[in-house]
């Protein structure tokens, strides 16, 4: 509590905080809060929970996850567990682990909304989450710029073309055998409590919590990303790629 | 096996036999006929004075009030709190069997915290969440089995506060969002796998019948969210649901086509009762109660299914009240309009209704002007359910006499954001000493049989029993029983916190219980109502209080 007050006291008279100091503070918060136990490890190198260093995360994404947590994983919301200065500091620190050398200290404030987009990217932003498409829209499975359901992992690499998008391989989708049927499955975790996975048989994906041993997984599946995006035409997919390029920084 | 035999018997029986609950309270509305009526009569007008608390359950979730209707099956009570903490309790003692805590929902998810109930069926417990998931738990253990997202709450501005309805192998749920720029829908999932079975949009899309009742692109954000729980008739295999108001709520220029005839079918299927095929979600028929709603008179409320003799002929009917207090009686096979009556004492929004159901003398709010309208958008009745007793033939309804000053505006729709387009401060009407009443109405004659006035507001559901008792609670914390035939107040108990939820009745090992949720506070109507009585301090809480006759006296 004392260190938090110290930061506040420092920040107030200066108007702008010293980025290096805040990052250093973030490293301390990280070490005692995030690197512990079976979690993210020293400098985000992982000791059980996902590695956080060198993942290409942008600051808005980091802020969202720290603030909101990741449903149904060990990643809790830290919105009330850490003070505001601690949250700002830890987000800034994790940003530096992802190659952002000069993180924004106000990143926590900004709700991750789509930035002002123009032309094709703006059209793509609408198409990505267009409500009239029901469960046939990208946002049924992807969260980008604060919209959509994070079924898939954050988009880290944007396909170079519509053809590449359609040919997108999904080796992480397996085939689950459960209750006498087989289904394409995106596995979230496998623990003593039993596996947790998304059943991708039809949209929207259903998160299933199986009893230990109740589901058997084999590599590969019949599921194809091309089918999931079949409701979009090529021009629409091209606009969506323009949108992703505009908002997802490599 | 025994269960399926009972179902077969019921399917050929009249609603008179299928509408009452017995030892269990299996569904949100009691049975799926939504009477909130128990056939138990151990507690009755003669002995109700001896009613005493049997057990109390503190949920510990005091963030909001307890609004849920408990479900009781085979001596186990299932209860959900505002923040989706789910409990299985021994219904005789209150002992905890299991508990499940839904993860805390991120604060950037819009919407109100609250849950009006869960559903039990197919060996599972189902509920919706603030972040818009449908979740299934194992009924025996409380272990999570599956969950599926219904829509991105951050985009649609919608979520689930209503109890789902289980029909055969599907779990069906409506959502909120009707006061925002959103296109409402009902969604059905497989109880077994959570996979999507169907979705019915309240507002027809391009090429669908009814789409022509919308101007331009207004259908995309036209509201209509069916935010409460429907009913189901197994012998007709029809699902009934009420739909929400059109959006923008108070300003219609962007949604009503030029030259539309406002006497019928404008902005379909908002402010309507609809009958759907539960297998496919296809619309069978509709009856719109408020064409071109400009008063925020949701028709999302409960649908009561009953069989009554009307003009000399026994009819299978449904009875449905919307926020205006206008109550429709329809043939539930065909949707034929059989009659309607208006319940509140103050009514300025229309002059009346014709014999064929057309609204007469519409008092429409005008852009740039302020119009006083009664009843208010808080509702002549709020979302809390009425009850129906087949012994008296009366509906038991909590009615509030409030008005509001509506000043419309013409803001542009922004997806998922508030799209009421009007200010509507709720106010107390002049010249009254009481602002609410419990009424008994005969739906066949449209006549009020009795009324019991109350000083403040009544925002808890009603329970009727075969002991000829009617129960409800008030914001001051009193839970009270009335004589179903006369309205005489026979008993009351100070539960210590205001009432904003529901009461149910059930039996375990031959002992009848009456259970009520307690705890004032609401983000919307409760807060508006409380503001009208600033000298009052209605207490918050989240506690279930369960009553029975003393062991010796029964």
Taking all Cα atoms into account, the compactness measure Rg of chain B is: 22 Å
Largest interface: A-B, 30 and 30 residues
Q: Count every beta strand of chain A, where a strand is a DSSP E run of 2 or more residues.
A: 5
Terminus-to-terminus distance of chain B: 33 Å
Return residue spans of chain B where pLDDT drops below 50 for at least 5 consecutive residues.
Answer: 1-13
Structural class label of chain B: mainly beta
Structural class of chain A: alpha+beta
Descriptive labels:
heterodimer, A: 250 residues, alpha+beta, Cytochrome Bc1 Complex, Chain D, domain 2, 3 domains, 5-stranded antiparallel beta sheet, 8 helices, 12% strand, disordered N terminus, B: 554 residues, mainly beta, Methanol Dehydrogenase, Chain A, 5-stranded mixed beta sheet, 39 strands, globular
What this model shows, in words?
The complex is a heterodimer of chains A (250) and B (554). Chain A is of the alpha+beta class and 250 residues long. Helix content of chain A is 34%, strand content 12%. Chain A contains eight helices and five strands. In chain A, helix 2 crosses helix 4 and helix 3 packs across helix 4. Chain A starts with a helix and ends with a helix. The N terminus of chain A is likely disordered. Chain B is mainly beta and 554 residues long. Chain B has one domain: Quinoprotein alcohol dehydrogenase-like superfamily (Methanol Dehydrogenase, Chain A). Chain B has four helices and 39 strands. In chain B, the strands form ten sheets. Chain B has a five-stranded mixed beta sheet, with no helix packed on it. A four-stranded antiparallel beta sheet of chain B has the order 2-39-38-37, with no helix packed on it. In chain B, strands 3-4-5-6 form a four-stranded antiparallel beta sheet, with no helix packed on it. Chain B starts with a helix and ends in a 6-residue tail after the last strand. The interface between A and B is medium-sized, with 30 and 30 residues. Strand 4 of chain A pairs antiparallel with strand 10 of chain B, so a sheet runs across the interface.
């Amino acid at each position: 509590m004392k260190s938090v007050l110290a930061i506040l006291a420092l920040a107030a008279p200066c108007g702008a905080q010293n980025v290096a100091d805040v990052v250093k503070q973030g490293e301390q918060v990280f070490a005692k809060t995030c690197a512990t136990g079976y979690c993210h490890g020293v400098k985000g190198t992982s000791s059980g929970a996902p590695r956080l260093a060198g993942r290409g995360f942008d600051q808005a994404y980091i802020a969202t996850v720290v603030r909101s947590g990741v449903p149904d994983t060990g990643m809790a919301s830290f919105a009330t567990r850490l003070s505001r200065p601690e949250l700002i500091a830890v987000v800034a620190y994790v940003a530096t682990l992802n190659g952002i050398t000069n993180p924004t200290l106000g990143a926590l404030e900004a709700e991750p909304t789509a930035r002002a987009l123009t032309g094709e990217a703006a059209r793509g932003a609408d198409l990505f989450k267009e409500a009239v498409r029901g469960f046939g829209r990208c946002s049924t499975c992807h969260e980008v710029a604060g919209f959509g359901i994070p079924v898939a992992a954050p988009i880290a690499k944007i396909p170079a073309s519509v053809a590449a998008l359609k040919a997108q391989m999904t080796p992480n989708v397996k085939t689950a055998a459960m209750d006498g049927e087989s289904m394409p499955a995106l596995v979230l975790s496998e623990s003593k409590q039993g596996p947790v996975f998304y059943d991708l048989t039809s949209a929207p994906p259903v998160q299933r919590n199986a009893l230990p041993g109740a589901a058997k997984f084999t590599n590969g599946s019949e599921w194809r990303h091309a089918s999931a995006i079949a409701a979009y035409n090529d021009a629409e997919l091209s606009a969506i790629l323009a949108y992703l390029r505009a908002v997802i920084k490599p | 096996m025994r269960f399926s035999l009972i179902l077969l018997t019921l399917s050929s029986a009249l609603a008179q036999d299928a509408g009452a609950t017995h030892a269990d309270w299996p569904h949100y509305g009691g049975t799926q006929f939504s009477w909130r009526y128990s056939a138990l009569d151990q507690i009755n007008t003669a002995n109700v004075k001896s009613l005493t608390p049997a057990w109390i359950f503190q949920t510990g979730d005091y963030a909001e009030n307890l609004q849920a209707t408990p479900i009781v099956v085979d001596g186990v009570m299932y209860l959900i709190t505002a923040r989706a903490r789910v409990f299985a309790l021994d219904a005789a003692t209150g002992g905890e069997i299991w508990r499940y805590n839904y993860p805390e929902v991120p604060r950037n998810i819009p919407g109100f915290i609250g849950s009006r109930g869960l559903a039990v069926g197919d060996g599972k417990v189902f509920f919706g969440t603030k972040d818009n998931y449908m979740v299934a738990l194992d009924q025996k253990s409380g272990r999570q089995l599956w969950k599926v997202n219904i829509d991105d709450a951050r985009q649609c501005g919608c979520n689930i506060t209503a109890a789902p309805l289980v029909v055969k192998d599907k779990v069906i749920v409506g959502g909120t969002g009707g006061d925002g720029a959103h296109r409402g829908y009902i969604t059905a999932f497989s109880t077994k796998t959570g996979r999507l079975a169907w979705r019915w949009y309240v507002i027809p899309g391009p090429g669908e019948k009814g789409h022509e009742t919308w101007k331009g692109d207004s259908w995309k954000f036209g509201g209509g969210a069916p935010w409460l729980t429907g009913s189901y008739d197994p012998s007709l295999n029809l699902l009934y649901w009420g739909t929400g108001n059109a959006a923008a709520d108070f300003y219609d220029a962007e949604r009503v086509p030029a030259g539309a005839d406002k006497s019928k079918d404008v902005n379909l299927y908002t402010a309507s009762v609809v009958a759907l095929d539960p297998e496919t979600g296809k619309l069978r028929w509709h009856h719109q109660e408020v064409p071109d709603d400009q008063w925020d008179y949701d028709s999302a409320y409960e649908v009561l299914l009953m069989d009554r003799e009307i003009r000399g002929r026994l009819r299978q009917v449904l009875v449905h009240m919307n926020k205006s207090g206008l109550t429709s009686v329809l043939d539930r096979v065909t949707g034929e309009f059989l009659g309607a009556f208006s319940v509140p004492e103050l009514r300025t929004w229309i002059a009346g209704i014709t014999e064929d159901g057309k609204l007469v003398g519409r008092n429409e709010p005008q852009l740039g002007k302020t119009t006083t309208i009664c009843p208010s958008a808080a509702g002549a009745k709020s979302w809390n359910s009425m009850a129906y007793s087949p012994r008296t033939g009366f509906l038991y309804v909590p009615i509030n006499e409030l008005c509001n000053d509506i000043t419309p505006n013409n803001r542009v729709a922004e997806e998922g954001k508030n799209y009421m387009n009007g200010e509507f401060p709720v106010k107390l009407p002049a010249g009254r000493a009481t602002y609410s009443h419990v009424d008994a109405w005969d739906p066949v004659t449209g006549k009020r049989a009795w009324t019991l006035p109350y000083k403040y507001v009544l925002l808890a559901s009603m329970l009727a029993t075969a002991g000829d008792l009617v129960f409800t609670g008030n914001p001051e914390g009193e839970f009270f029983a009335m004589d179903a035939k006369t309205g005489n107040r026979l008993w009351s108990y100070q539960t210590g916190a205001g009432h904003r939820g529901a009461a149910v009745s059930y039996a375990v090992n031959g002992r009848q219980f009456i259970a009520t949720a307690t705890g004032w506070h609401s983000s919307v109507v409760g807060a508006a109502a409380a503001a009208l009585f600033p000298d009052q301090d209605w207490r918050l809480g989240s506690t279930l209080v369960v009553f029975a006759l003393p062991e010796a006296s029964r």
